[in-house]
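pasting for ref
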Amino acid sequence: MQTAVYPSLEGRGVLVTGGASGIGASIVTHFCAQGSRVVFLDMDLAAGEALAAQTGARFSPCDLRDIAALRAAIAAAGPVSVLVNNAARDDRHALEDVEPDYWDERLATNLRHQFFAAQAVAPAMKAAGAGSIINMGSVSWLLSQGGMPAYTAAKSAVRGLTRGLARDLGGFGVRVNEVVPGWIFTERQERLWATPEAVAETMKRQCIPQKLFAPDVARMVLWLAADDSRMVTAQSFVVDGGSI
């Protein structure tokens, strides 16, 4: 399959959160292939170091729940023209089992860092008069998916965050958009939840009955980062094979 090359991404500073595995690793790999200068943050030391060696991207270990550490990692990343707020974790949890500490931790894992990463890169983007912030959402809440209420609450909030930041930053030439993946068959998803029954049900729901993979999302992210989408902001782009 032939895919696009974006000249505007060559040499562009890109920061990807949660970039060591899954969708994030594919995003890192795709930006590196475009000639971008990529820094990615993650807690997984082994996977992060392996991906850095493979792609030439710079790996910065970071627990994104620690906002001071996140700010320090972004400050050390150098000029950032593109922020991809990818990091998240869709651990299942029962309604009855959620306590306040767990609720707060789930929002810190899946939402809070997106705001503080955007806050950290915004001054330089505003000064440059350009920039692209791409927040990763999820179709889970749109599908009324149960079994993880703190996750779906956090992911639904990404849309409001995206639209609010787009208004705040648009006058400075900074664009903010959301990418909404469907069920992406990463190694983790295949290992934990991709039973034959669940896969068959998903294929029935999708207009295009084929499995989605991380590069399908990464290629949408590339377009939103490139100058080709220069007047696109405050939008949500669903990559789900037509399931919603």
